[in-house]
Amino acid sequence: MFGKKVNEEDFNNIDLGEFEEKYSEKGLWEKIQGNLAAIGAGLVYKALQLFYVAQSPQCPMKIKAAIYGALGYLISPLDLIPDFTPVVGYADDALALGTALLLAQLYITDEVKEQAREKIRSLFGEKVLRKLEEEEA
User: Which of the residues 13, 44, 86, 111 has the least number of beta carbons within 10 Å of its own beta carbon?
Assistant: First the structure.
């Protein structure tokens, strides 16, 4: 989709099945749990916000498509910049997530943020959550 102009009708008719092939909840959890140090808690927190926004019935389908695309890109082993590249390995993933966050910002409620924080706590513990909250302050 990048580099090609999409009109509103095409955008509204996006087949989410195309994104679902690349995105799975299981794949997301495996990527996050196995790569926290490399990805960083802040980027994981943003990915979790997107995950929970996509679960919301108030989130429009076209926003969900952008979210699934960004989360699918995070999970995908094929990146513009390979994830194992030191320092910049997750820069392209951050860009994809950032773009989806811009589109979804109206739907990121305090409840969504709390769900993301609770998931950070359950996956990585209180220490990681406190560090994340300090970085946000």
Answer: 86
Residue 24 placed within a domain: yes
Q: What is the 3-state secondary structure (H, E, C) of the chain?
A: CCCCCCCHHHHHCCCHHHHHCCCCHHHHHHHHHHCHHHHCHHHHHHHHHHHHHHHCCCCCHHHHHHHHHHHHHHHCCCCCCCCCCCCCCCHHHHHHHHHHHHHHHHHCCHHHHHHHHHHHHHHHCHHHHHHHHHHHC
pLDDT at 71 over 80: yes
Counting the structural domains of the chain, the total is 1
- For residues 23 and 71, give the distance between their C-alpha atoms in angstroms, rounded to a whole number: 6
pTM of the model as a whole: 0.70
